[in-house]
Amino acid sequence: MIQSNPLLLMVGLPIVIGILCLPLSDRLKSVAKVLSFLVTLASLAGSIFIFIKRPMNWQCGVTTMFNADNLSSFIGLGISFFAFLITIYSFGFVEKSLGRYFGYILITLGVSLGVAFANDLIALIVFWGILAITLYLLVNMQATESSSRAAKKALIIIGSSDAIMIFGIALIWMITRTFSMDRVRLPLTDITSLAAYICIAVAAFAKAGAMPFHSWLPDVAQDGPTPVTAYLPASLDKLLGIYLLARASLNLFIMNSTSNMVLLVVGSVTIIFAVMMALVQHDFKRLLGYHAVSQVGYMVLGIGTGSPVGIAGGLFHMLNNAIYKSCLFLTGGAVEKRAGTTDLTKLGGLAKNMPITFISCLIASLAISGVPPFNGFVSKWMVYQGIIELGKTGARLWIVWLACAMFGSALTLASFLKLLHTTFLGQRSKDLIDIREAGFAFAFPMVTLAGICCIFGIFAFAIPLSIFIIPSIGQAISYLGVWVPTTATALLMISILSGLLIYPFYRPKMFRSVQTFVGGEDPESLQRVSGVEFYDTIKDMKGLKFIYEKEEAKSFDIYDQGKNIISFFTKILQHLHNGVLPTYIVWCLLGMIGMFFILFFR
Amino acid sequence: MTYMAKALEYAFLYLIFPGFLFSSAMGLLIGWIDRKVTARIQWRVGPPWYQNFIDVLKLLLYKETLVPEGVSKTFFLGMPAVAMASATLVSTIILVINAIPQKGFIGDLIVLVYLLAMPSIALMLGAFASQNPLASLGASREMKLMLSYELPFILSLVVPIMKSGYSIRLGDILIKQANNGSLIGSPSGAISFFVMLLCIQAKLGFVPFDISEAETEIMAGAYIEYSGKALGIFKLAKAIMTFAVPIFLITLYFGGIKFSPVGFIKTILQFILILVLMIVIKNTNPRVRIDQALKFFWGPVALLAVLSVALAYLGY
């Protein structure tokens, strides 16, 4: 008996329309565009409705299939919002097989909402599994060799983590005899429930891209279509992965110091390792891919601290990261579309050509580096505070976590300054002089996201924290005497503006444009400083050089290492396949005898 | 009406005392001390006390401002303003908290750490925008330098946090020191202070860590395209930083500024002590290469910071 219900409609409508979109040929591409625009808009409106009307649920028979509480309705709102912006962006970006493309986008939207609202563990794993497939299909849209390799890698890593998650769910069922998430509340005292928690966490890590399951993300970022990267790995996968981790850590299980320690270690290693890799990249999108990994570390770290302020910081960081990271990927896509490449050695000096893209990218870069007053600062600050709260309780290693988090932030800034230099600032290479600014479909999502970066930073406590984050974790956080960025921002803005006014105030003719000065040489004759090699000093340091070489040889890549192990075993098994029929028959007979013995003596 | 009064109060604090006007005047005076002591070490006479003031005024009022061709003007000229605004904010926050420890907020220490990095970030972005290869080189060195000193800086910051009972409020750190004696008196505090001293030497771009400017090598590096008002504003921002950063150290390690007559003289002496230490380091060392600086800060200095943290754990 199925009644109509807003939650069911929210999940079902995008999936149905998405499937209908799939066969549309490119002659009917405007139909696909209009349909997907309308559906994403409707779903945005619907999730706002659900967010306001929460809590809500949908009963299917006796089980509560969907449930929209504070956390999941907030996640659902985020999902619909990003789907809407990415759809608009895709109008400008995607040119071929639009029916299929928008079909997948809509199915992904519906399925993601399904994950967010699912209250039944079986429903959760079904939707969760479909997501890996739509990611594979979307990344593989262009079907080039590199993109299909990246898509395959993503599918294998995420798919195997899904299998581990199924095992975790089975363990939960074994202990509690229920699949209803609202009825599960397990203390992590025995080994079975700890194993169940780790299994769920592995799936969350793989989806969000935390170490050591991260290696699919940079590849997808580099070779997949940019809006897809901005849509799935940069925003939706982060929201859902961290949602699952938060759900498991806050509701399904009662955390103890061991499980927190796992999260803290994973978080810190992820932050430092991925950002060190990002420092030396020379592709715009691959660099962002490594940052997409590194930022997950802060969220995991925040949840791992176990203190309310840290958890709130982790969740807030998840939201912030989705915002600025997809903004960054979108600017990357705009550059790719106009300049025809994302190779940093070929770019440079685009600020004059693409001012809107540049400003959006600048704001998002500063936000991700945690520069006040943007949003990334507030959430990082909350994570730091969570870590220090942890120190108060007597945990010894808090300094390590704090140093990793704060130093990681400096490294992030460094790699983004390099990105800004090599793409937008610095000297322009000659073939980029005629580049135009990207169109409205590009500019609208970028500017919206950059604007939100500012608003969420300056009014952090008034808007995002009190509306979305604090209700989600269900614990009160004291507001007393916290950093209120509004005054400081106002002072900064006023003084920067007045600083700018000083210039024209005195005799404007005192400003003269001259050629750059390089000791009297002709600047054109000198080699262009592209900036890609900025951090080679660090790469060449003794201990680090070894690690960098290992990483480039894929020694830390769980995918390649897994491949090595499997091919090791297949090599052994290969010897048995010698093509001689009698050998095969002997094997069959041996097997039959073995089975006979087992069955007979049981 | 109360909003109005509040706004006026903030404006006064920020713009006049102890903010922009006071801090920059103090910073320029400190610049004079630096020049005078350096001159005496080198057996010269040195400039009169007002030299730095007229230098900056000349840049601000009379000198032409040149902008490189094909550069986004607003961005290029805006960066000095960003640097100055954040330097002023740092100075204001530190001084106001010193006067009234209750004025601070939770985590103001972290806000300050980030704001202290802002002038450098603005300088780097401005240099990148200037499209000059030497400026790009200089700015990239500045970034690497920042990476190198940031690690020991964060680690040694942990000691005051631990000693104040896990508080990241500057006010709490001050109150704790007022009750238990200055941090510098304990072994961990002394080591941590020494590490911090090296870090701020690099933060302020003093020799031997003036790698990003390196006049004789890359012609002032990051500053190369800046002239006139833009350069003047950068100089002011730097002057404010040379005032605010030692005060930051005094706050963390010497128990802050004392306002009794004897205490005030003590504070001034402490300030001069830090300053002279910095100037002596500056005048007795040649400039290091950037990879040497990296090795230095990530190697021995970071280890020293770890040692101070370990000592703080053991209660020393």
Word description of this protein:
- The complex is a heterodimer of chains A (602) and B (316).
- Chain A has 602 residues and is mainly alpha-helical.
- Among the domains of chain A are: 1-119; 261-475 and 528-536, no CATH class; 557-600.
- Chain A is built from 22 helices and five strands.
- Chain A has a two-stranded antiparallel sheet with strand order 1-2.
- In chain A, helix 1 (6-21) runs antiparallel to helix 2, helix 9 runs antiparallel to helix 12 (308-339) and helix 11 packs parallel to helix 14 (375-392).
- The longest helix of chain A is centred in the N-terminal third of the chain and has 32 residues, at 145-176.
- The termini of chain B are far apart.
- Chain B contains twelve helices and one strand.
- The model of chain B has no long low-confidence stretch (mean pLDDT 84).
- Chain B has one domain (12-314).
- The longest helix of chain B has 31 residues, at 133-163.
- By secondary structure, chain B is mainly alpha-helical.
- Helices cover 74% and strands 1% of the residues of chain B.
- Chain B has helices at residues 2-15, 20-41, 51-62, 73-99, 108-129, 133-163, 170-180, 187-203, 215-218, 228-253, 261-284, 290-314, and one strand spanning 65-68.
- Chain B is globular.
- Chains A and B meet through helix 13, helix 14, helix 15, helix 18 and strand 5 of A and strand 1, helix 4, helix 5, helix 6 and helix 10 of B.
- Strand 5 (511-514) of chain A pairs parallel with strand 1 (65-68) of chain B, so a sheet runs across the interface.
